[in-house]
Design a protein that fits this description.
Blueprint (H helix, E strand, L loop, with lengths): L9 H10 L2 H19 L14
Length: about 55
């Protein structure tokens, strides 16, 4: 994951270079979790409501 632009905080830039951008990684993981949960909890019918005449 790419580091965020923090030109006014050189110490933070150094930490990102050494350890990675933990905040950006956490935000990415949260978004992936949100998408997975939304997909898992989607109760809409797969056939978009077509009638099942039997």
């Amino acid at each position: 994951m790419e580091a965020t632009n923090t030109s006014i905080a050189p110490i933070y830039d150094l930490l990102i270079t050494e350890r990675g951008d933990v905040i950006a990684d956490a935000a990415h993981a949260a978004e992936q979790t949100r998408l997975k949960a939304a997909d898992t909890l989607d109760f809409r019918l797969a056939d978009n409501g077509k009638d099942h005449a039997t």
